[in-house]
Design goal:
Number of helices: 2
Largest sheet: 5 strands, mixed, barrel
Number of strands: 6
Radius of gyration: 16 Å
Strand content: over 45%
Structural class: mainly beta
Order of helices and strands: EEEEHEEH
Helix content: under 10%
Length: 126
Amino acid sequence: MYQSPLNIQQFTGRLVRDPEIKQTPTGKMILSFSLAYATRHSSDREGSFTSYINVEAWEKLANHFATRLEKGMQILVKGSLVQNRWVSDGQKKSVFKLVAQAISITDLKRRPAESTESAENLDQVA
């Protein structure tokens, strides 16, 4: 999948649920999960609120993190923002998701003992 160098987003947050593993009809592995992250707005007197984004990791990256990620874990994800559009019951619908290029576990308390991955060296896995 081509990913433009101009469309790179980075999110740090916590997994809302355990990741789901799926496989395409052609056998490609997909790891999908939702990430909760804090968003700050100048008009918000509280300082921030929680937003959510769906994330997909494909093939090698999906396989690498399939058993390493779990609900509540803090991670950093770098990837491309993609919009999916479809029509359901005559209604136009769309959703944004982040297609991961790199994942880094930033929750040191819950990080697997053998894991020393960072966003930089995981670019080689993707």
